[in-house]
Amino acid sequence: MSIKVAVVGASGRMGRLVCRIVDETPGFELMVGIGSQGELSQMIGADLVVDVTIPAVSRTVVDSALENGIPVLVGTSGWSSDRLSALERRLALSPELGVVVIPNFSVGSVLATSFAAMAARFFDSIEIVEAHHSTKIDSPSGTAVRTAELITAARAELGPVAAPHIDQRARGQQVASVPIHSLRLQGVVAKQEVLLGSTGEVLTISHETIDQSAYEAGIVIALRAAVTTRGLVVGLDRLIDLDGSAAGRESTLPPVSDEPSGQAATATSTL
Fold first, then answer.
1. Are residues 15 and 88 in the same domain?
2. Strand order of the sheet with strand 178-185?
3. Active site annotation includes 191
4. Given this model, what pLDDT does residue 268 score?
5. In this structure, are residues 208 and 225 in contact, taking their beta carbons and an 8 Å threshold?
6. Per-residue confidence at 137, pLDDT binned at 50, 70, 90?
7. If you ran DSSP here, which 8-state letter would residue 206 be given?
8. 183, 200, 236, 248: which is deepest, by most CB within 10 A?
9. Strand pairing partners for 128?
10. Do residue 130 and residue 91 come from a single domain?
11. Of the residues 4, 133, 136, 207, which is catalytic?
């Protein structure tokens, strides 16, 4: 029997992609795609709700799904640590339900973020520059926020990063002590650079999404996980086996397309 999926935000760029992936993935069935003018009551009867709306709407979608006893996969940016903490407390009262929040479905992006968190213990000066298409509403991006939070967590025993003159507006927005600079440009899909500086060297960890096909494998992984997840899971890194040691998690990517991956990643060090 197929998993019936309701996609909220189905008329948007990510919504159309998710609807296609659901249709093409064995074991899943698109029950309904709910656009901006649709009623959330249309999700009733689904086995899983996928939220790919906007930050101002996402919380309402999740609340409505949980009230109807439906697990949720969230692909919408803008979920702050405070909102996630509140959601985790709510889920503690409903242990039979789960919510998976994925700031970025790109496996390459998740790897780049993990590399940055790994390197953060060796550099005190760290900043993030992220760029997205001009129609992206929120800034900084959910991926940049997630990256900053993981960097700070990795530096828990070392303290906050060095960020001089942060009182000046041009220095970006601090998230978990890390300055983030956001660009919104035509011609860009998504790009993030983490710059880590130390005496005599700079390490740059860069990832760029050049086509939405980069999200396909991550969407399939997240769909499969969201069906059985209980409680709150945040980040695609929690669903894949990054170091090859976690049994039961994805160690290879599911086949979803013969097209190029749609992403490019680089790590450079300059003197």
1. yes
2. 173-175, 178-185, 125-133, 190-198, 201-209, 263-270
3. no
4. 59
5. no
6. confident
7. E
8. 236
9. 180, 194
10. no
11. 136
pTM of the complete model = 0.84
The domain total for the chain is 2
3-state secondary structure of 164: coil
Amino acid identity, position 13: R
Is the domain of 196 the same as that of 230?
no
Residue with tokens 């005599």: 200
Identify the CATH number of the domain in which residue 201 sits.
3.30.360.10
Residues 94, 66 contacting (CB under 8 angstroms): yes
Pick the catalytic residue: 4, 132, 133, 191?
132
Residue 233 zone, left/alpha/beta (φ > 0; ψ -120 to 50; rest): beta
CA distance 155 to 233: 22
In the block, which residue shows the tokens 């600079």?
181
Which residues form the domain of 37?
A: 3-105+212-238
Per-residue pLDDT of 58-103, as tens digits, reads 999 999 999 999 999 999 988 888 999 999 999 999 999 999 999 9
Q: Round to whole Å and give the CA distance between 74 and 155.
A: 28
* Orientation angle between helical segments 216-228 and 107-119, nearest 10 degrees: 80
